[in-house]
Amino acid sequence: MIERKISKSYLYLTAIILALRASLLPIPALIDTTEGRFAAVAQEMVLRGDWITPYIPLRQGFVPYWAKPPLHIWLTALSLKLFGMHEFSARLPAFVASLATSIMLYLFSKRFFPLLNPFLSVVVMFSAGLFFFISGGSLTDPTLCASITGMMVSFAFFADAKTHRESSKAGILFFVFAALGMLTKGPVSVALSGLSLFLWLLISRKFSLLAKLPWGIGLLAFFTISAPWYIAAEIKTPGFLHYFFINEHIKRYLFSNFGIKYGSGHSYAYGSIWIMAVLAFIPWSVHLLLSAYAFRIKLKEAIVEKNDWGLYLLCWALSAPIFFTFSKHILATYLLPSIPPLSLLTVLAFHYAEDKNRQNLYSKITQVLVALMYFGALIAIGFGIKFGEPFTVTALSVVLIWLSIALIRSQNFQNKETGFASRQIKTVAISTILLYSLVVLNFNHYVSNKRSAKSLLEYVASISRKKRIKIAVLQSHSYGAYFYDDSFLGKKISLFPINGEEIGKGGIRRYMIKRNDVHKVQARHMNRLEFVKNFGKWSLYRLKKEK
């Protein structure tokens, strides 16, 4: 059993994990296309001073970005304005949103599972692969996850309220978080939380709770917060509402070709989201799947039948994969809202491992996982050396390995009084966080060079004598390049999207293009250019001198 008393060791471990994740925010360079896109859109919002319409760089120049509502873009723009135009600022809002999710998960665990240490669910959540990496990315998903977590936690507090005042506050908060979700990604936030609650209310037969929600003031708060921007956006750029709700939601969910304006869709076979779910929750999905199979009857009794809030977590966790089962256009990041409830369910699974058979199974899984994590850490260091990471990164990686081993072996963390579950969870979490951190550190240069145009711009700035440099961008864009075009080595770089017919015009002599887009440009246009150098998936060309 996990002890009632909160040991300082849990707080220390949580603080170490959060500090380590925050310290990695500046690296690598913003990854195209997703990170670069949101950072560039937020940067353009700051430069234009237009906080209603986000703009995105496309072939025809900057155009209104209708794919997402602006809450996360607002937060990113504010961060860029306050802390400067760099990677840390672009990724900070996602990390802050993840912190908010952690706090709400902590409060939920403390309220509804008092026998559990509430910090453990946060530790599991941050050591889940998807959550660790996405919490430090310039992406909208962490903000959406925080909004949905807020809705689910608020509704639970509302349903469990002991007084009318507590019920009203929690009920209003539910609608406030729903509004924030609408401003982050639109109706998908309401759909996911709505499906979770529908399943729970249906199975537990508690539909009467809906009548007790403060619908009047709640809906007033919802529309007061969310509606003004939607109205302003449609007035400023007519056609937004139709494209956003019809194309980006209904058609995206139902059809393969939904008329996407920005980038390309990600099409997978129906049901692929379940495979993604297993991979997204590594390493904890291994424990959950094996224990669910080996002890399915006891787990059902312990998690679902003994505690109504265990069922609540299960419905919450399954809503995203169920919802996206029949959609082809999916990404693993769509599963992020399921990670918080899965994390608490994992702690519950460990908590109810009371008999020796289950404890032996968990111990064996833990031993294998920890061995794999440290083996992976050594491989990461090897790749870092191969990719040319500086010696300081290698030395730091070795120090982190030593510190993690010392932390696992320390009496403060391995004291038997803390219980079997705590020791197992902390051991796996420490080794997993170590591996993830070393991957970020040792793959920094590789990812920055392969998935970002930053190195190309740095190279051009280093070889150019001019203080103001023009680079033309052919075909599809590197959104991140627009984020980085401000200044390198004291030189201003300006990017100009063009087509093949415009080569040689405007006094531009340098051209960048994605390597897999070269074939899209007619040969007669490419013949006017001379290849210079490859930078990951981008190529740099210069205009040939006329004979």
Summarize this, please?
The chain has 547 residues and is an alpha/beta fold. 64% of the residues lie in helices and 7% in strands.
List keywords for this structure.
7% strand, 7 strands, two-stranded antiparallel sheet, 25 helices, disordered N terminus, 3 domains, five-stranded mixed sheet, alpha/beta, 547 residues
What's the layout of helices and strands?
Elements: H1 8-23, H2 34-48, E1 55-58, E2 61-64, H3 71-83, H4 87-112, H5 118-126, H6 129-134, H7 141-159, H8 164-184, H9 188-204, H10 208-212, H11 215-236, H12 240-254, H13 272-280, H14 284-294, H15 296-305, H16 308-323, H17 339-351, H18 356-386, H19 391-409, H20 411-414, H21 420-442, H22 444-451, H23 454-463, E3 468-474, H24 479-484, E4 492-498, E5 510-514, H25 523-526, E6 529-535, E7 538-543
Parallel strand pairs: 3-4, 3-5
Antiparallel strand pairs: 1-2, 5-7, 6-7
Helix pairs in contact: 1-5, 1-21, 2-3, 3-4, 4-5, 4-7, 5-17, 5-21, 7-8, 7-9, 8-11, 9-16, 14-17, 14-18, 15-16, 16-17, 18-19, 18-21, 19-21
Describe this structure in words.
It is a single chain. With 547 residues, this protein is an alpha/beta fold. The protein contains 25 helices and seven strands. The chain has a five-stranded mixed β-sheet. Strands 1-2 form a two-stranded antiparallel ribbon. Strand 3, helix 24 and strand 4 form a beta-alpha-beta unit. The N and C termini lie far apart (82 Å). The relative contact order is 0.11.
Q: In total, how many domains does the architecture comprise?
A: 3
Rg for CA atoms: 25 Å
Tell me the number of helical segments per DSSP (H or I, 4 or more residues long): 25
Mean pLDDT: 90
Distance between the termini: 82 Å
The assembly state of the depicted protein chains is single chain
The general outline is globular
Sheet with the most strands: spatial strand order: 4-3-5-7-6
Residues in β-strands, percent? 5-15%
Helical percentage: 55-70%
Largest sheet: 5 strands, mixed
Total beta strand runs: 7
